[in-house]
Write a structure and sequence with these properties.
Elements (H helix, E strand, L loop, with lengths): L7 E2 L4 E6 L2 E6 L1 H7 L2 E5 L6 E2 L4 E7 L3 E5 L4 E6 L2 H4 L3 H4 L8 E5 L11 H8 L1
Antiparallel strand pairs: 1-2, 2-3, 3-9, 4-6, 5-8, 6-7, 8-9
Length: 125
């Protein structure tokens, strides 16, 4: 499994790339492999506010639908519109073109509560 060292991770298999006061979010390589072929993504609405661990999006695969949770408290400022036409980007490039949304974090300290790569690798081992 690919687990980039420069990201943070949640128990529910979302990844976070901190970009200043923003958090770019997607699902991990482990999660996309478990889901198999992603066929639809329900993106959050721009301006939606969420609590940490609040359900914010849905990813559907040929196997199942899976809720996506906000890793930190914040406001949605961007969504990946490319997923509407090509949801398989989550499978082919989960840490790049397959990102799902960007949150403006209420507090950048929130990412410190997430797992680092080593802890996430241990959790999925």
């Amino acid at each position: 499994m690919n687990v980039p060292d420069d990201l943070f991770y949640t128990e529910s298999h979302e990844w976070v790339r901190q970009e200043g006061e923003n958090a770019r979010v997607g699902i991990t390589d482990h999660a996309q492999a478990e889901l198999t072929d992603v066929v639809y993504v329900e993106l959050p609405k721009i301006g939606a506010q969420t609590e940490a661990r609040g359900q914010i999006a849905v990813v559907e695969s040929v196997k199942a639908a899976s809720d996506i949770y906000a890793p930190v408290k914040g406001t949605v400022v961007e969504v990946n519109k490319a997923l509407e036409g090509n949801p398989a980007l989550i499978n082919t490039d989960p840490f790049g073109e397959g990102w799902i949304f960007v949150l403006k974090m209420d507090s950048t300290d929130d990412v410190k509560r997430l797992k680092d790569a080593a802890a996430y690798r241990k959790a999925i081992a």
